[in-house]
Design brief:
single chain, Elongation Factor Tu (Ef-tu), domain 3, 6-stranded antiparallel β-barrel, alpha/beta
């Protein structure tokens, strides 16, 4: 897959089959659109082109609304789209000025002049342009004049999946990793850097790696204890993660910590990736460190059983 960060970088593409949108998470409904995109490209001897935006439009249009968290960073989105077999990815900078473009301006300058689109594929309820004025009917009106065909994914193909990025975010905020995976088609994950903590876990035989997310705009699932896979230098390990305030430890601030099974190497300042499989339990307050250790042993056995039921390969 070739990636372009501006219109000027786009080459001349023969029979461009195009779709566009934020594609946060590249979930199963997105994949349905991409499947149709590739089918048309195969039938027409064309090449697939996906247009997306960075940053997410809502972060530009509503900068004071800090509630939006992302399923995928731009790097993760690129990797996910490459797995889907897209030929060309155009990442357009989303600005206030760009948000003021009319749908007609977008069609003319991007769809027609820049990409020379032959086929445009959109989801049934997709809107674009200033004030979301652009629609399937709008595109149909101008498609013949500008020499491209437009196809809308039938409503039943998307509705039957009943998937949206909003539903995935809600599932993760409720610590429902299984539902999130059902919508995504893969385990939700984030990248993080290992930093020094208070090393209290070592005292009870459960050393943890304290984490800071690489991308602060990514979703952090709700406070809880989770069964996870941990990806370190292209190797996969089993583990369990605690997100929260760890109420059994005095003066403990909110933290993200992962205990990696059968792993003793130094990870400070290293970048790792955590894949969320299932919630094990809520955070709990324990009367003593010994009680906490007893529960952590139970959690480890529970996590191993969960991870063995749902194996994962990178």
């Amino acid at each position: 897959m070739k990636v372009y960060n501006s219109i000027a970088e786009m080459p001349q593409i023969t029979n461009a089959v195009v779709t566009q949108g934020t594609f946060d998470g590249v979930h199963l409904a997105h994949q349905q659109i991409l499947k149709r995109l590739k089918q048309i490209a195969l039938q027409t001897n064309g090449e697939t082109v996906l247009i997306t935006y960075e940053p997410h439009p809502r972060m530009v249009l509503f900068p004071d609304d800090h509630g939006l968290k992302l399923i995928s960073s731009i790097d993760e989105k690129i990797a996910l789209l490459e797995k889907q077999g897209i030929d060309h990815l155009l990442i357009l900078p989303f600005t206030i000025e760009f948000s003021k473009w009319s749908s007609l301006q977008f069609i003319k300058e991007i769809i027609v002049d820049a990409i020379h689109t032959k086929y445009l594929v959109i989801g049934y309820n997709h809107r674009f342009g200033k004030n979301r004025e652009g629609s399937f009917e709008h595109l149909k009106t101008y498609s013949s004049a500008y020499g491209f065909e437009v196809q809308e994914i039938p409503v039943q193909e998307i509705d039957n999946l009943s998937i949206s990025s909003t539903k995935i975010r809600e599932a993760l905020f409720k610590s429902n990793c299984i539902l999130a995976k059902h919508y995504l088609g893969y385990f939700y994950s984030f990248h993080a850097t290992v930093v020094k903590g208070k090393q209290l876990g070592r005292q009870i035989g459960f050393p943890t790696a304290n984490l800071i997310l690489t991308d602060s705009d990514k979703i952090v699932p709700a406070n809880a204890v989770y069964a996870v896979f941990v990806e370190i230098a292209d190797q996969l390990y089993k583990g369990m993660m605690n997100i929260g305030n760890n109420p059994s430890i005095p003066d403990k601030e909110h933290s993200i910590e992962v205990h990696i099974f059968d792993f003793n190497e130094d990870l400070y300042n290293q970048r790792i990736r955590v894949h969320f499989v299932d919630k094990l339990r809520e955070e709990m307050r324990f009367h003593s460190l010994e009680d906490l250790k007893t529960q952590l042993n139970k959690d480890k056995l529970h996590a191993i059983a969960v991870l063995e039921q749902d194996p994962y390969e990178i």
